Amino acid sequence: MAATESNPIIFYDITCAPDLPEAQAWSPNTLKARVALNYKRLPYKTIYIPYSEITPTLKSLGLTALEGQTGHKAFTLPIIIDPTPSGPKIVRDSAAIAHYLDATYPDPERTLFPPGSHALQELFYNHFNTQLSLYFISLYLPLVPSILDEESAEYFTRTRSAALGKPLGEVYPKGAELEKMWEEFRGAFGVLDSALQKNEVRHGGVGGDFVMGDKFTFADCVLVAFFIWMNKVEPDRSGWERVKGWHNGRWERLWNKSREFMQEK
What we know:
InterPro entries: Glutathione-S-Trfase_C-like, Glutathione-S-Trfase_C_sf, Glutathione_S-Trfase_N, GST_UstS-like_C, Thioredoxin-like_sf. The chain is an alpha+beta fold and 265 residues long.
């Protein structure tokens, strides 16, 4: 039986500090999957767990550590457990989850990877992971411990410092270096903006404010997830105030048109 309201997909996410409920659903990696689930209008139930419980929880499900981009193996979220006719199906990693949802719950009106878009979305994902994500890491990763409980904050700081090869507190740029990084960040987004301008009608495109023009896709899940992250870990939202005004307001338009897919469940 496919997922229903009475038997939903189980979605594992990372909790924040209990006194910061407004920061719930904060992780960009899990948010990519959450936004995809919301877009597909699939019934799901969130189980929030702290960092200290991720490894034992995934081990209890029979899972092993995954190797990341740096070669370091770790137990990571997101994962979903889908109640299929043949038994619970576990899917991990946000991109794999998105592909799985399209294949298992096909909907021509709400597909995350429309026919012919796989290669283009892979190029987008490569640009995001090799260019844009580097700035997000420097500017926002050091802010994450401030929204976690004490034990999770210690774990996050220790593991990210080890992965980055320097104390997490030294990752965030200071002084003139900070403004320089923001300018470089804007430039990296500018490369993406230049490509997306080809969607505009004046350039022979279909119009629209999504990565694929008039169709929401997994590429938009990625951008929206990181924009939400910015807003969750930075209370004054000063970074988002910058970004949403870049490139003739493109990113704010994308945010506004994606609002219905941002809900927390």
